[in-house]
Amino acid sequence: MSDLQKPPGSSANAASNRSPSEIVEHVVGPVEWTEDTQGYCECPGRDQHTSRNGRRDCTVYLDHVPTLYCVHGSCRQAVETKNRELRRALTNDGEVSTTKPRRPTAAEKARLAQARCREGIRIRAARSRDRILKEWSWPLAQIMQDSPVTMPENAGDHWQPLLRRFHPDDVLWLGDKFDSGKPEHGWNFRTAREWLEGDAAPAPLICPATFQPGSINRSNENVVARRFLVVESDTLGKDQVGAVFRWLREKVDLALAAIVDTAGKSLHAWFYYPPPDVVDELKLVLPVLGCDPKLFTASQPVRLPGALREGRHQKLVYLGSEVQR
Ligand SMILES: [Zn+2]
Question: Is 210 part of a structural domain of the chain?
């Protein structure tokens, strides 16, 4: 392990009295260190980004060849220039080092290997983004045409088939945003069977998870099981986001239960909840593909089809045939 690979904050070398992390921050600005040898910083070519900026677009790696990597492509020139500057700064300081390198422990090695693996997945997804959006294109009209099950004619009835995708004894929360936390909110927690006894959509929102019987709080602690992972995007339009849904269904092999038109700007895809290792990967990949990570929170509510939103029905545009429980 050369002096360049020393973790941030370890003893500074004799010549400059600056640790590698200090040298890096001197060159690229403040770094949010996530591992001994990597962290996030602001992209030196941020001004040239042509798509939305994220807080974690640009990563600095200190192991092997010190490198900045940004998920955007439009800043490549600026990133390359900064990389040369970074390597020069670290080499100039590193050459005269006399300190003995510290050997990483087995736990540190494992942690770094895992972090590198996670980052690899994220980077691969970022590189594939444009290709996925193009090759797996699935515009809204085509989604509706491809639906294996025909939707009820009256959009006001669309909540029923979705609730039938749950187990009849599952306790579901349906309600409005703030219908949680007070004794009267026991009303909002009922089994799927009980909800289905009504004849109109009972509320505008639903949770894709199930709750403890007797809950009054729509909180993660009261979640019993996660039945669905709902994927949506704030940035991809209704004719674009289908590509991510189709890629998840055909390439990642997730089972697609339904797609909901939220009567706003977006579509929500309801996938049967995948196994934990797949969820871990999706947490890395989906944000890079432009999909909202807040839906990984168990108690996050989403739009219920069949309910009205500003005079327009939230509705099903796709309904899978199989029921998985
Ligand atoms: Zn960039």
Answer: yes
pTM of the model: 0.67
State the distance from the centre of ligand 1 to the C-alpha of 75, rounded, in angstroms: 5
How many angstroms separate the alpha carbon of residue 55 from the centre of ligand 1?
11
| pLDDT digit string, tens, across residues 257-310 | 999 999 988 999 999 999 988 898 888 889 889 997 667 888 999 999 999 999
* Same-domain status, 128 and 162: no
242: which residues sit within 8 A by CB, 6+ positions away? 137, 138, 139, 140, 142, 143, 259, 267
Residue 39 CA to ligand 1 center (angstroms) comes to 15
- Residue 86 in domain: yes
**Ligand 1 centroid distance, CA of 90 (Å):** 21
Q: Are 20 and 32 contained in the same domain?
A: yes
Residue 200 inside a domain? The answer is yes
Range of the structural domain that residue 215 is part of: 138-319
- For residue 73, the CA-to-ligand 1 centroid distance in Å is 7
d(CA 296, ligand 1 centre) in Å: 26
Axis crossing angle, helix 106-135 with helix 276-288, rounded to the nearest 10:
60
| Ligand 1 centroid, distance to 184 Cα (angstroms) | 50
Would residue 162 count as lying in a domain?
A: yes
The pLDDT tens digits of the residues spanning 158-172 come to: 999 999 999 999 999
Task: Give yes or no: residues 59 and 175 share one domain.
Answer: no
Taken in order 71, 75, 80, 85, the sign of the CA dihedral is negative
Q: What is the pLDDT of residues 120-167, one digit of tens each?
A: 777 888 888 889 999 999 999 999 999 999 999 999 999 999 999 999
Report the number of distinct structural domains present in the chain. 2
How remote is the CA of residue 103 from the centroid of ligand 1, in Å?
33
**Residues 145 and 124 reside in one and the same domain:** no
Ligand 1 centre from 81 Cα, in Å?
A: 12
